[in-house]
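Thread: quick sanity check before group meeting

JM: Hey all, I'm pulling together slides for Thursday and realized we never actually wrote out the predicted structure for the chain we discussed last week. Dropping the sequence here so it's in one place. If anyone has concerns about the input, flag it before I start.
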Amino acid sequence: MARVRDVPIDEVPADARPVYQRFADEYGPFLNQVKIFAHRPIALRHIMGMLLEMADNPILEKRHLEIAIVTVSAINRCDYCVAHHGPRLLDFGLSREVVDRILDADCPGLDQVDRLVRDYAAQVTRDHNRVRDGQFDALRAHFSETQIVELTLRITLCTFFNKFNDVMMLEMEDEAAVFHQGAGNSGRVALLNPAIAADYIRSIAVIGIIAGLSSPSQYRHKVKRASLRSTAQILMISQILSCRVMPRLKDKARQDYAARVIDMGCRKLVKRGADETEI
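JM (edit): ok, ran it. Output follows.
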């Protein structure tokens, strides 16, 4: 439980509600963070609003942005942020081992530019006064000045979020908590056939809507990201549904339907295991 109470959306001024709702629905499983920022609607509007606007108008590859955020969060030991942004690296085809070993010099799976971003994020976070011209020149070979400015902004902003989240003792949302529980258990993660993953996520997202846990926009967000979901992530969602959705389905017919979809989906993953490629 956080150190301050959660602020529900109906207590937020009308001009901050669209940002509250959209950030909770579309940016990721950050509802617990939004509920705390809502104590200060000005911060909610401008900080979360800025992140949403940057996501709408991207100039950096998301892969590089997430590598930087996971690097900074690992240095600052912010489990909340690693658990939220680590799964996004899996979305880009990187393994769980990359998340767990992001600070290792020999971290596998990173290309030259990935390492450049990782090392820059680490240097800015550990000792910003010793960022050398040579490191900046290396960045210029791959990024425009505008991109470097945004990368630096997001790296430094990440430290703010790391400290804020930990001081406020934010509780992890379910999906992030499941990912965090697997920390240090790196291994080969199988990638699903995109069609199988998308079909399964659509089914379980519908169950979430039936149970009143997700809005239609959250459902669309899940489906939009489905094509790069991994076996591990699908099983996370199944576990969450089993623990949270099933008890909230009042009618037995709906419970039976949900149980069948979850069971079928898990068995489908096992059956297709031989056809899956591994990182």
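AS: nice. The radius of gyration is 20 Å. The CA atoms of residues 178 and 239 lie 8 Å apart.
JM: adding both to the slides.
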